[in-house]
Amino acid sequence: MYSFVKRFLDVAAALLALLVLFPLLLVVAVLVKATSPGPVLFKQTRLGKDGREFQIYKFRSMCVGAEQIGTGVYSGKGDTRVTKIGKFLRATSIDELPQLINVLKGEMSFIGPRPPLTYHPWPLSEYTPEQLRMFAVRPGITGWAQVNGRKDVEWNRRIQLNVWYVEHMSLWLDIKILFLTVYKVFTNADNANTNATVVPEAQDATESVEK
Fold it and tell me: What is the full DSSP assignment across 93-128?
C-alpha cells in the first residue's frame, strides 16, 4: 500500500521542486556550459528497479573525457578533473537535481537505494540472491546507506543497508532519511571517496568518476 502512496508523493514533490527550483537549475546550466566545454547534463547507465537499466541525469561536474585521463575511472578527493563549478555542485549535491526528471519518469524515487552502475560494484549477474533484494524498489536520489556513511561505506555494507531499507520501508523511515540527508548536505559529511569502495577479496571493481 505504501508503495502507491510513495509514488504519488514522489510525483507531486518532483513537480513542485522543479517549479520552485527552475531559476536555480537554469543558472547552474548556464554556469556549467560557460565554464567548461561539453554538455550541461551527464548521462550514465544505472541499474534500477528489478535490475532494469536506465539513464540517470546529473549536472556535469567533470571535464569531458575524464575517464580516459588522470586516474582513470576512479574519482577521489581533490580530483583535478572536476571543474571549478563542479566542485561546488558536488559539495552541495546540486549536481543531483536533474534526477527529479528521473523521478517523474518513474525510474527513481526521492528515497531508495542509490542505483549502482551496470559494472560497479560488480555486474548484476554476480549479486547474491540476498543482495538482489535491493532492486525490489525504485532507486532513490538519497537513501539509508547515504545517511549511514555515504561514500565512506564499502559496497558490501552499502548493499546490506539497502536491503535493510527495502525490508523496513515506511513513510516515517523516509521522513527520517530526508532530514538526515539535509543534515549531511549542509555539513558536507562523507562526500568524498577516502577508501577503496569495494573490498578487494570480495570483488574487483572501481568507482565511477561521476559518483
Answer: TGGGTTHHHHHHTTS-EEESPPPPBSSSSS-GGGS-
Which long-range CB contacts under 8 A does 131-134 form with residues at least 24 apart? 131/159, 131/163, 132/51, 133/163, 133/166, 133/167, 134/159, 134/162, 134/163, 134/165, 134/166
**What's the pLDDT score for residue 207?**
35
- On the question of pLDDT at 65 being above 70, the answer is no
pLDDT of 57 higher than 50: yes
Each domain of the chain, given as residue ranges in start order, spans: 2-187
Question: The whole model's pTM is what?
Answer: 0.85
Q: What is the distance between the alpha carbons of residues 5 and 97, in angstroms, rounded to a whole number?
A: 22
Collapsed DSSP state (helix, strand, coil) of residue 160: helix
pLDDT tens string 179-192: 999 998 888 765 55
CB atoms within 10 A of CB 167: 9
Angle between helices 84-92 and 2-35 (to 10 degrees): 160
